[in-house]
Write a sequence for this structure.
């Protein structure tokens, strides 16, 4: 029986294993919106016979996108590049670096986790020229350099992580035609948004789709909500203190932000499926409610990447659009703050190829390839904005490059055990009906426990 | 024993019913994903799988062609066509022009869009939109409609999963890991179990105690020390640290305590006279083991083989840590876990891949089942 | 792909062949160095004695080496780590242990683990026994047993997909595609998010393990039941005992030892189980268990090996009494030889 089975498998696999030859998404030299001179420069870098392993958070459709960028590096340099990811990549990277078998490059979206690795001496610092490059060529450059600077094993600050691919978090997605048909206007202030929510409820609809489910990371989408609200009710300095625990987590300012979110998420009339569905719905599924007929909800607050989870064939700008999560009229002095996130590349095992790859990321081309497809925003000023696949992305890119107050996702700045643990659990408790003050006190207790 | 209880017809009937209830409860979850994996992907989320045989109705949206498609006819501007692509026709029962009221009009009715503009949508999807003045804009009118689709079963999901999601590769990886990781521990454990059951040497009782004690070691905690060891060895010899040999030995190590425990208690139960008469005939322990004990232990070896096979095949953690999580190295469970994350809500992908991972262990189990029961019978009953 | 199949077959042959070569070669070597046949009587007896001294270690050697490397060394390492800080470098004494018992999440895990220990082994054994008794009485019992045994062949990840599908939740009034909520809605109730219901969610997770393990209990208990001598039961029937009396007074005491073994095996499994919790809830909604908590501390958010190791040691200590009981059983039994 086993022989039959093996034979069957052999036949099946032979039939389906088409040669995985490198296919470049856009042919070099063809479209002038790409900086092709970079590609020619890249060809001078000879990495034949070198191997480069990259471990990143992108899986599924995102993996296809990142691979399309990597193909150019492979094709030009001849390097043997292996990209891998894992559903529990945060645990995986700890296991691998700790045991001494790290990839060459680790891509992580959490500065808190990178700090952990850096302080254990598991990362190789990048050179000063790279830090200078980021400072000069990135929108709000200094804040990106600060973001990549961590204390090493001896407690000295060093530049460890190169930012590539940013996400804009302060976005509310909606379907323009649903708004038109119902006669709703895009709100300009938080108060207007509140009034709109009540209007939608009065019309028999549901304003919000919120989904916190994310497997082992369930709860994180709510942390973005709270951070956005923090930035809209408190000064950026208070925000910074909050992420460093210089003000306690149960400070009244934080509790207030938690309460504002809870008032939306635990109101059965405000969220699709009722409060109970919030924590149970997968974050990748929740935007689908916008596109249901009749719509299950009218608004969905989520970072820019979410558009890759919209139903097949959705055209941004036509079938779906976004507006900036509005500020409070009552806190007009805070301007239009922007909350973002992003992925940071750090070298976990030094090699010539790893250095060359970091240099590749400085090239506009590396950004443009992904920009021209979807999902990637870049603060790199030298990247050609015309490369964005559509107007919507370009609009987001502009918000990012021109940001006045830009703050990184707070939960990612906190120590891993808080930002990727107690804070998430707290959010689940919060939407489960636990009072905001208790939730905040619990998170602070956990924070005290790791000091 | 069969006739000792429940002689009455009612009692027998009750037993049948009770067993039927248990069997139903135990099989329904698996049946659910089997049925779902064979359904059309839109229908999976439109109705529960227990309704798979009745037709389901769906509400969808379509966009009419933009103004550029209009023609002038009898002084009116008209856009005509069919909302369905060829070969995808369905029966429309109702349609509407607002998302909030997608079934406002019955199929074939004429909807009034105001300003003399009208739209008629027929059951087969053909539409006529006409207006006294020319249409403008690049965005076509949106139409919502409810259509009913007959139940549809398909192998498309299997094709998608097998051909585009890289399951074939993972399938081979799983086999390459599982076969040696099943055979090697059996051999090592069989020899050790014989020694512990029938040979006399100092420290035997202690070794037995230690092996039973090791049954409880949670393997998660062994991961980091072992991976460090592997990396040290790999660096010393200049070889990669994540290899098939490495994972075979790891599975062997984690499976050994149970294997030795099970085999030893079975072998200890074999008749003493057999060994003694062989020994008098001048056979060495090696010959006794190969010629007498091994053939007699076949049932317990088979049942351990099933256990170990299922365990290794179904393992996720050891594979990810010792083999890696790149798409070249992923085993089936790893692949499924990755799909669980990246395709969170795509039930057609999840149910299909779940069923694919189940199918091999099921075949192995059903083909070796009779040995399994016999082996466990001997081993465990003795254990009490 | 063809190359992979080929290399797989070659590696399989090398791996398995290597093990065969060792056992056969080593024993052959022993026979050649200390020949017991074809030599004079006194020398043969001498050589036989030497063989008897060496051969057990040839048999058990590979197993001992592998066990030492793969299990004993990690246990020692873990014990050492549990007295050290998060990087495994600075000695902290019992600080990790005192932290553990003061930690809310840890206490929650202990409570949940106790729930699991109280429910799962008992439920599996009880259901397994009932099904074993019932299926013995009917002609299609073997088929029924196979179907109930089937979940044991399914991976925890696969089982998680299956049960997520059962527990799937859609808002009130929408079409439910999760079976459980569909039934609840059909009966007029309102759908629930089963895996986030405080306290009760533990039971919805346990159901999965019970579903998997009942088949195991059933097979073993059914085998033991067949071992009960017919005469014992017939005698009871003649004495006028009813079926329940036979079950409780005759059958249960006869197979008591087997019940204990089943119970122990499942208890150990419960303490080690983490896949189900990881994939279904990852310990959220207060459903954390020790094994998953340990994984969490070891690998999540940078990792704290000291605390992770401490939890691992506590899990092992918790099972120790059961193990000592088992070792006693094993020694009593091997005393006969």
């Amino acid at each position: 029986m086993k022989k039959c089975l093996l034979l069957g498998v052999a036949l099946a696999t032979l039939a389906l294993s088409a040669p995985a030859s490198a296919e470049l998404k856009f042919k070099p030299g063809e479209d002038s919106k790409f900086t092709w001179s970079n590609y020619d420069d890249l060809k001078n870098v000879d990495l034949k016979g070198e191997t480069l392993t990259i471990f990143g958070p992108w899986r599924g459709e995102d993996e296809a996108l990142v691979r399309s960028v990597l193909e150019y590096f492979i094709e030009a340099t001849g390097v043997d590049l292996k990209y891998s990811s894992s559903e529990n990549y945060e645990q995986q990277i700890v296991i691998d670096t700790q045991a001494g078998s790290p990839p060459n490059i680790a891509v992580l979206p959490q500065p808190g986790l990178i700090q952990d690795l850096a302080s254990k001496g598991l990362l190789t610092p990048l050179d000063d020229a790279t830090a200078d490059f980021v400072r000069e060529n990135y929108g709000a450059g200094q804040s990106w350099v600060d973001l990549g600077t961590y204390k090493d094993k001896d407690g000295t600050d060093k530049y460890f992580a190169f930012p590539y691919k940013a996400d804009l978090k302060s976005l509310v997605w909606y379907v323009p035609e649903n708004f038109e048909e119902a006669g709703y206007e895009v709100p300009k202030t938080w108060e207007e948004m509140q009034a709109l929510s009540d209007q939608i409820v009065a019309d028999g609809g549901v304003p919000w789709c919120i989904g916190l489910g994310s497997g082992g990371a369930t709860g994180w989408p709510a942390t973005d909500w709270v951070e956005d609200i923090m930035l809209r009710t408190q000064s950026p300095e208070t925000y910074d203190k909050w992420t460093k625990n210089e003000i306690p987590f149960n400070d009244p300012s934080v509790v207030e932000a938690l309460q504002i979110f809870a008032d939306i998420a635990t109101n059965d009339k405000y969220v699709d499926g009722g409060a109970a569905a919030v924590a149970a719905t997968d974050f990748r599924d929740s935007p689908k409610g916008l596109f249901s007929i009749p719509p299950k909800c009218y608004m969905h607050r989520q970072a820019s990447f979410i558009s890759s989870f919209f139903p097949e064939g959705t055209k941004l700008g036509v079938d779906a659009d976004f507006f900036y999560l509005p500020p409070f009229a009552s806190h007009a002095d805070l301007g239009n703050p922007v909350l973002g996130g992003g992925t940071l590349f750090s070298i976990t095992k030094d090699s010539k190829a790893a250095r060359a790859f970091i240099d590749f990321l400085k090239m506009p081309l590396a950004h443009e390839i992904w920009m021209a497809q979807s999902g990637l925003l870049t603060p790199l000023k030298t990247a050609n904005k015309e490369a964005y696949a559509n107007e919507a992305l370009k609009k987001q890119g502009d918000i990012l490059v021109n940001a006045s107050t830009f703050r990184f996702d707070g939960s990612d700045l906190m120590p891993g055990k808080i930002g990727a643990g107690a804070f998430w659990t707290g959010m689940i408790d919060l939407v489960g009906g636990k009072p905001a003050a208790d939730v905040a006190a619990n998170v602070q207790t956990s924070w005290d426990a790791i000091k | 024993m069969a006739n000792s209880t429940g002689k009455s017809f009612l009692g027998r009937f009750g037993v049948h019913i009770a067993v039927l209830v248990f069997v139903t409860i135990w099989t329904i979850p698996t049946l659910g994903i089997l049925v779902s994996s064979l359904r059309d992907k839109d229908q999976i989320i439109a109705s529960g799988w227990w309704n798979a045989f009745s037709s389901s109705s769906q509400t969808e949206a379509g966009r009419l062609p933009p103004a550029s498609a209009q023609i002038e006819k009898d002084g009116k501007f008209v856009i005509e066509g069919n909302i369905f692509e060829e070969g995808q026709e369905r029966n429309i029962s109702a349609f509407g022009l607002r998302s909030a009221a997608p079934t406002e009009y019955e199929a074939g009715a004429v909807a009034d869009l105001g300003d003399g503009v009208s739209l008629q949508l027929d059951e087969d999807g053909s539409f006529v939109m006409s207006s006294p003045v020319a249409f403008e804009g690049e965005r076509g009118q949106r139409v919502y409609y409810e259509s009913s689709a007959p139940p549809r079963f398909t192998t498309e999901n299997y094709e998608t999963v097998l051909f585009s999601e890289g399951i074939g590769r993972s399938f081979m990886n799983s086999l390459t890991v599982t076969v040696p990781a099943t055979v090697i521990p059996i051999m090592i454990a069989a020899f050790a179990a014989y020694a512990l059951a029938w040979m006399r040497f100092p420290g035997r009782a202690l070794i037995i105690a230690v092996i039973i004690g090791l049954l409880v070691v949670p393997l998660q905690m062994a991961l980091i020390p072992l991976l460090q060891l592997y990396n040290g060895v790999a660096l010393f010899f200049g070889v990669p640290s994540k290899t098939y040999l490495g994972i075979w030995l790891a599975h062997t190590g984690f499976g050994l305590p149970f294997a030795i425990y099970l085999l030893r208690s079975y072998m200890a139960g074999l008749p003493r006279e057999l060994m003694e008469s062989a020994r008098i005939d001048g056979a060495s322990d090696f010959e006794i083991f190969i010629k007498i004990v091994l053939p007699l232990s076949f049932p317990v070896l088979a049942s351990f083989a099933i256990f170990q096979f299922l365990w290794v095949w179904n393992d996720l953690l050891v594979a990810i840590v010792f083999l890696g999580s790149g798409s070249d190295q992923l085993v089936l469970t790893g692949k499924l876990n990755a799909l669980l994350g990246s395709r969170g809500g795509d039930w057609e992908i999840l149910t299909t891949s779940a069923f694919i991972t189940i199918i091999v262990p099921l075949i192995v189990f059903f083909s070796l089942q009779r040995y399994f029961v016999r082996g466990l019978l001997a081993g465990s009953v003795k254990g009490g | 792909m063809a190359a992979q199949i080929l290399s797989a077959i070659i590696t399989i042959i090398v791996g398995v062949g290597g093990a065969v070569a060792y056992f056969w070669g080593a024993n052959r070597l022993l026979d050649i160095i200390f020949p017991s046949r074809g030599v004079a009587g006194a020398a043969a007896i001498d050589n036989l004695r030497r063989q008897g001294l060496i051969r057990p270690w040839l048999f058990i050697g590979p197993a001992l080496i592998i066990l030492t490397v793969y299990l004993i060394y990690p246990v020692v390492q873990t014990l050492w780590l549990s007295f050290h800080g998060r990087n495994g470098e600075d000695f902290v004494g019992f600080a990790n242990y005192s932290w553990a018992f003061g930690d809310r999440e840890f206490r929650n895990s202990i409570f949940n683990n106790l729930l699991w220990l109280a429910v799962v082994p008992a439920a599996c054994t009880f259901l397994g026994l009932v099904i074993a008794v019932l299926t013995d009485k009917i002609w299609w019992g073997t088929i029924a047993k196979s179907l109930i045994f089937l979940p044991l062949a399914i991976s925890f990840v696969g089982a998680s997909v299956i049960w997520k599908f059962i527990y799937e939740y859609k808002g009130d009034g929408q079409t439910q595609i999760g079976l459980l909520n569909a039934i609840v809605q059909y009966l007029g109730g309102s759908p629930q998010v089963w895996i986030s219901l405080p306290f009760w969610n533990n039971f919805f997770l346990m159901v999965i393990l019970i579903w998997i393990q009942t088949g195991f209990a059933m097979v073993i208990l059914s085998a033991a039941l067949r071992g009960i001598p017919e005469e014992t039961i017939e005698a009871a029937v003649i004495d006028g005992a009813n079926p329940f009396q036979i079950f409780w007074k005759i059958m249960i005491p006869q197979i008591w030892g087997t019940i204990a073994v089943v119970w122990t095996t499942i208890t150990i499994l419960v303490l080690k189980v983490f896949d189900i919790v990881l994939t279904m809830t990852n310990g959220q909604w207060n459903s954390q268990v020790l094994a998953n908590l340990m994984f969490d501390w070891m690998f999540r958010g940078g990792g704290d090996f000291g605390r992770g190791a401490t939890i691992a040691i506590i899990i092992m200590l918790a099972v120790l009494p059961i193990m000592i009981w088992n070792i006693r059983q094993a020694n009593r039994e091997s005393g006969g030889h």
Remarks:
- Chain C touches chain B through 123 residues (CB under 8 Å).
- The mean pLDDT of chain C is 84.
- Chain C has two domains: 2-81, 105-157+192-334.
